Amino acid sequence: MKDSVVLLLLFFGSLLCSPTNQARLTVSPSSSQFFEYDFVSLSCEEDDSSAGWTLRRNTTTQQMTQCGVKWGRYTGSSCEIRFIDPLDSGVYWCESREGPISNMVNLTVTGGSVILQSPVLPVMEGDDVTLLCETKTTPSNLPAAFYKDGSLIRKQPTGHMTIQHVSRSDEGLYKCDISGHGESPSSWITVTAQHTPKKQPREHRLYTRGSTSPAAALQTTPRHTHQTHKINIYALLHSLFVFVILHSVLNDEQWSTANLVYYYTNFGCKIRISI
Question: What is the pLDDT, as a whole number, of residue 19?
């Protein structure tokens, strides 16, 4: 009986503890702005594979359309746009059949002669960020002026500017201007908080007798991130499930001594059961 209980808990617990794979949308070349007729490749990447993900976009003329339908074509695991057009400007993301989506990327395509090369993905607090003001036909080392939220922040003699140790105050809408060539479109730069890795996994312990409810038995740390919030929900679901299973299959003596400890990490959970 005891072995059956343990196997049931491990089997169903593993389903609840299985981490949800999150795809990453990557863009090559890594930029949020492109000249008309540039070549762009987009990929949905996971730690283990890219299968099962569909690349979609919203533009001014198309909503929720996937690669290969009226735009782009798949080459292996990548979606290629060989001659990108201003009408390709929009929001791109990866989506699975089960529902989860990746990070969203905003791409801007211009028919003008100046673009701002800036990070296409959010940057981490404390990192250095280099912005490059580039022209279509001439060397990209011309003097350029850089703007944030419409205000001039710096003029650089060589067309590039580095923001050292970025902070949340550096988040905003950036553009650049090269005299005699024109102004780039604007691109938003997002700065994310730096997360300190936890040295020890958080512990959630379920007591069958000492607690009035499984929810009350959860010992969790304060929520700091969206990811931590999801882990807390999994812990609650797991504890409720274990509470029901134990209550239904154990006799009074086993019920009085049953104890389960499980550790949640970013990669799933480890379970220790004693009955």
Answer: 44
pLDDT tens track for 115-140: 999 999 999 999 999 999 999 987 77
Structure tokens at 52: 């099962």
Quick one: CA torsion of 33, 35, 41, 44, rounded to 10 degrees?
A: 20
Instruction: Answer whether residue 237 is part of any domain.
Output: yes
- Where b means 16+ CB within 10 Å and e means fewer, 16-46 reads bbeeeeebbbbbeeebbbbbeebebbbbbbb
The answer to whether residue 39 sits within a structural domain is: no
Question: Domain for residue 162, yes or no?
Answer: yes
- Examine the domain organization and report whether 170 and 216 are in the same domain: no
Domain harbouring 144, CATH code: 2.60.40.10
Enclosing domain of residue 241: 201-274
C-alpha angle 144/150/155, rounded to 5°?
A: 25
Looking at the fold, whether 206 and 171 belong to one and the same domain comes out as no
* Residues 6 or more apart in contact with residue 240 via CB below 8 angstroms: 214, 215
Is a pLDDT exceeding 60 seen at residue 160? Answer: yes
**How many domains are contained in the chain?**
2
Same domain, 205 and 173: no
Nearest CA-CA partner of 22 in 42, 3, 1, 48: 48
What's the confidence (pLDDT) of residue 24? Answer: 86
Q: Are residues 171 and 217 in the same domain?
A: no
Could you tell me the two tokens for 195?
A: 């997360």
Which two three-digit tokens encode residue 23? 């795809």
The H-or-E segment that residue 245 falls in is helix 226-249
